[in-house]
Amino acid sequence: xxxxxxTTTTAAERLADVExxxxxxxxxxxxxxxxxxxxxxxxAAAFAETVADRDDTVVLPTLPVGVSEHHRQFHGTxxxxxxxxxxxxxxxxxxxxxxxxEKAVVVNGHGGNTxxxxxxxxxxxxxxxxxxxTWNWWESVSELSGELFETEGGHAGPAETSVVLEVAPAxxxxxxxxxxxxxxxxxxxxxxxxxxxxxxxIDFTPTGAVGDPTEGSADAGExxxxxxxxxxxxxxxWLCEQPFESLLPREHVGNSx
Amino acid sequence: xxxxxxTTTTAAERLADVExxxxxxxxxxxxxxxxxxxxxxxxAAAFAETVADRDDTVVLPTLPVGVSEHHRQFHGTxxxxxxxxxxxxxxxxxxxxxxxxEKAVVVNGHGGNTxxxxxxxxxxxxxxxxxxxTWNWWESVSELSGELFETEGGHAGPAETSVVLEVAPAxxxxxxxxxxxxxxxxxxxxxxxxxxxxxxxIDFTPTGAVGDPTEGSADAGExxxxxxxxxxxxxxxWLCEQPFESLLPREHVGNSx
Amino acid sequence: xxxxxxTTTTAAERLADVExxxxxxxxxxxxxxxxxxxxxxxxAAAFAETVADRDDTVVLPTLPVGVSEHHRQFHGTxxxxxxxxxxxxxxxxxxxxxxxxEKAVVVNGHGGNTxxxxxxxxxxxxxxxxxxxTWNWWESVSELSGELFETEGGHAGPAETSVVLEVAPAxxxxxxxxxxxxxxxxxxxxxxxxxxxxxxxIDFTPTGAVGDPTEGSADAGExxxxxxxxxxxxxxxWLCEQPFESLLPREHVGNSx
Amino acid sequence: xxxxxxTTTTAAERLADVExxxxxxxxxxxxxxxxxxxxxxxxAAAFAETVADRDDTVVLPTLPVGVSEHHRQFHGTxxxxxxxxxxxxxxxxxxxxxxxxEKAVVVNGHGGNTxxxxxxxxxxxxxxxxxxxTWNWWESVSELSGELFETEGGHAGPAETSVVLEVAPAxxxxxxxxxxxxxxxxxxxxxxxxxxxxxxxIDFTPTGAVGDPTEGSADAGExxxxxxxxxxxxxxxWLCEQPFESLLPREHVGNSx
Amino acid sequence: xxxxxxTTTTAAERLADVExxxxxxxxxxxxxxxxxxxxxxxxAAAFAETVADRDDTVVLPTLPVGVSEHHRQFHGTxxxxxxxxxxxxxxxxxxxxxxxxEKAVVVNGHGGNTxxxxxxxxxxxxxxxxxxxTWNWWESVSELSGELFETEGGHAGPAETSVVLEVAPAxxxxxxxxxxxxxxxxxxxxxxxxxxxxxxxIDFTPTGAVGDPTEGSADAGExxxxxxxxxxxxxxxWLCEQPFESLLPREHVGNSx
Amino acid sequence: xxxxxxTTTTAAERLADVExxxxxxxxxxxxxxxxxxxxxxxxAAAFAETVADRDDTVVLPTLPVGVSEHHRQFHGTxxxxxxxxxxxxxxxxxxxxxxxxEKAVVVNGHGGNTxxxxxxxxxxxxxxxxxxxTWNWWESVSELSGELFETEGGHAGPAETSVVLEVAPAxxxxxxxxxxxxxxxxxxxxxxxxxxxxxxxIDFTPTGAVGDPTEGSADAGExxxxxxxxxxxxxxxWLCEQPFESLLPREHVGNSx
Lengths: 257, 257, 257, 257, 257, 257
Description:
- Six copies of one chain form a homohexamer.
- Chain A is α/β, with parallel strands linked by helices.
- Helices cover 39% and strands 9% of the residues of chain A.
- Chain A is built from nine helices and six strands.
- In chain A, the strands form two sheets. Chain A has a four-stranded parallel beta sheet with strand order 2-1-3-4, sandwiched between helices. A two-stranded antiparallel sheet of chain A has the order 5-6.
- In chain A, strand 5 and strand 6 (195-196) form a beta hairpin.
- In chain A, helix 3 crosses helix 4 and helix 7 packs across helix 9.
- Chains A and B meet through helix 1 and helix 3 of A and helix 1 and helix 3 of B.
């Protein structure tokens, strides 16, 4: 069910059977000249959609602005501080927990959000409000990505390009894919003798992309999307099976204090 | 233009002509047994859509969770603190301002957001970052509402019901409209000798609605929507005409300090 | 009783019978050329005084600086942020609650304070510390104001001028009342097609006043003051009668969660 | 001049000549069985009054609640956190500085406020907003106190009792002075081998007083009050003479960085 | 025991017998031309070492940066805000309390830290997390200091110089002691008619020292150090003897509320 | 140079030549039954020592408590929130920058600190206060680790064990190394279908260690330490060569805004 489409009374009936809230989050940020600024939240929403028909889930509205300050030199990028994003996500999950849904998956489309989401998850669990791990689609299919593409890629790279070709093909400017890859590095960031010194994307990629986007394809996108969606589905299964108490923080070791 | 559908490079071209950012915000909260939980952000997004085709606007993604703690006893309501909502909106508007769009309209679908949005607007102006007034659709057509309906209404009342019938008819449970009005008060809140003592919606309405929703109709919705959309369009015209400097805070009176 | 005039031991005896704390709050801000900067807290203190002789009340010291940044361009205006004012009021009320007085009325003389006071009241109730609604004198007598004056007025307008003539006549510069009304708008604020665009008082009134202050009079002030004081007295009666538990937040609807 | 008694226009004229703002602050807290809960702000206001007639000062409204949590076990004590008190004072002083009065004296009646006031003063100076030292009346006449009384005293002790007898004799319960001294320690606090271990007043004094209040007298109060008032007057003189720039933070030593 | 030198399993065994955590804190700040920037944390660590061999103590790692902004004009001074320092200390003590050690002594080497440490102690006690008074070595031996030296001294003065000569003689530039005393005032701060107006050290001492450092000596240092260490040892004894419950905040006086 | 060992005057001379501040940070947290709780800050300090003799560096005092809440169930673990740790580090680096050293390396011994350190680095650079990348020793020698050991390891695993055997052999309980590896997983964390669900260390390792510590050796430690120290040295070289301006954030792309 999509929470926003229900009334409070029909929601009441349905939420009684729901085990897991699904919260899609992403960002609005540059994805090079070929992919849309809304890539991350669009992809997250598409994955959330794949588990929306289950009786044991409730899909919350998509949160579209995330932790993207490092892309700010590129036109159109929006961002919030990590603290604000963490608060917005945390309070949203506290709300659904107040109606009895204490397990959640944050379906995340943007790597820059993960630090804040980790703090959200830790603190909700610590306070015994909710158990809400983050699910990053690209991590669930990293092996398949490795098989499909030669360059490691990442932000706006072959895997992400492929997935957008699957979920929102009309928004991909395919004629700009080659341009996106020009001068783009193989992997994320810029490191000098063990220290990450490239704090902003513009420090290490002139186009905003990482990896060779022309490696991406609609076919690869379909395969990645289906594989990741299957992982998400199984993750939701697993969460449904866990009693909430079993997900709470463990006790201090030993007899003390 | 919808920001999220552009790439950074096509956004760059278009933003050069843009004068006004349009940010739809709402909430996910109970609207009684007949209207969807997503009413407020759905309506806000619909209004934003009406000015999306102008060359001088950019529509930002919709922010779907707002200041709704006072509805929390009803199933499905989500909320953030006013401080978090203010921060999320403020930082989003700072982002678009960093790309040169320093005027904005926050198209708001939820009365509970206005305190936070007023602070956002005041502080962005004070820092000379942006001029971003809030536009509440119901305030732009209060006269017409008065003509159309007998009960004053308000939250989930006749005017709001009508507008949802216009913008998302499939989400209205028309057979529950009569139930929504049962026991609902005519106006918002509960007052004792000059003091507002009903802090939560549940303190003064058993169904969550205010006013008689059965007064609402698709026809009334069409009239309200078109009238309000015209107001919004004219507001955007007005903003486009104002030089940014003329919108900044006025100087201290007199010669000192 | 006035708390500050008692010693801790005489306070102990008296507080045992007290049901309601009365906290006068206002601001120090421009009220045009005719009314004193201290208008709002002076009027609040005067209203608090009217219920000070009851055995079931304790009057706390007056808090004289409030949320008045929107008047800052006029000489003499002081202000705090809404967050600071909220904290100062909230902690003051937490203090008196710690001595067993868990019901309170915030007697407020300044409209700009209401957002912060609403958050104070909501949060104190939510935490079950206190039930502390705001009482705005002008809202308790809005009908009478409508009868007495032709212009709607508001800040430094006919009703407020009248009440200051009643409670602190020596501080009114009657010869400046006409000047105060010159160019003053009838009502508060400045709106463009449904959006409030005048964030500071100076944006819409050259003198700082709203409405025609020359409509005010000592007679009108006496009538308004007595009528409002009677409302306050009845509000205190009502609060005394309510068991504290009955004032706490209501439960979630339905059986869940 | 008292700021609150002026209108914005008469304030504008007078503030042109003003050099120093005078802000009385105190607390509402137990002062034993004999002295009123409002002792600290009453005394502060009385001292502020002594410099109110100067042409070069403006007296701001009295802030009546301070940092008094350590007295909270005694009936009637109110308090705010140090952070809230600091913010309330700081923002009040920023307001008067915005009208051109950048020098101030915080006339303080409560020792517990000094940590917060020191941070206020430091930060206002650091930001070059204002120079606003704290003036504690008891520190300005510590020598005279030593001559007048045998016990060192302090909170609600002989010196404070004397000063209240001078400024608000009607509020002193003289018949309770002996009781106040029963079991009261000579000096503030409780120390164990170099560590202060009495965090609350109740940890070291059963009545709330420190020192022997019966040593106090109206005569001693008159002497102390006049001596301290003379010190305050001279301090204001000194502040008037200092160019604001000479009061700003000093540069880093040496040529670097 | 030094916590950091144990493994988690050997710590578990030892902590079972521990009553008191010892946390050395200081600062890194100018101490004039003769004493090292690390004086305050070095001395604190040395005192903590004197009680490290007891079975009932655990020494935590030394926190080396404190509240020293008032020394910032002198090369090499580091500092945090009082709020940050308070948080860092508080959370460190909450950590050790979570393992069952709820009594602590903060062995402090820097006067500027005391305000923050007092708040730490009060708040940990208020929440019943820990009882953690601050121990300032110089306060435990103030009488002896008075006997040993003619000038009152203080920061980088005779007593501190002596103690550094005892605990870290290699870091004292004895040939600079005379220079340190040139122009140094006898006591801390700068006062005008009862108001402290010297907010930074540089406002009242050209060298950064207070008092005549040439009065200091290794002999005096030995005496001071031993005397203070004996006080600390006795303080730890005292803490060991107190049941934790007896150290918690006292109840409200009387029967109410 | 070690900052803390200099006086303000000798520091002034030396800092004139310094290009890079070196700030060792770690944590005090469980490292299984064989490694000391102080492992992370001890190792960080040892690496900082290797560049302390350069004329162009200044080594700041070691910050010993970090972001380790996820180890809290194991005896002896201390921690601060990420926000507090970020503030403590940031303000420390602002201090040294105020004396003219605007480039820094944070030598970090604890993976859990990296999120906070990344925010520190980004914000200091954004405000143009300092350029302060984090250097994680294990990342600078990840290739060598891969060659030396079969298990990937990580926290308290073979590489860390080896390095502690190099820098603080007396603190390693070698007889407990086998026990440490019992039941320890090969890699960090616990993942279910793409989601990290093990928020605390105790969720996935019974001993607190990750990897097989018995693979570690003093020889491997020496090789790792020297290799990493060489990387750090080269990183400092690189930082010395960069003009500060070249390290500041890049401009917005294109001509606008």
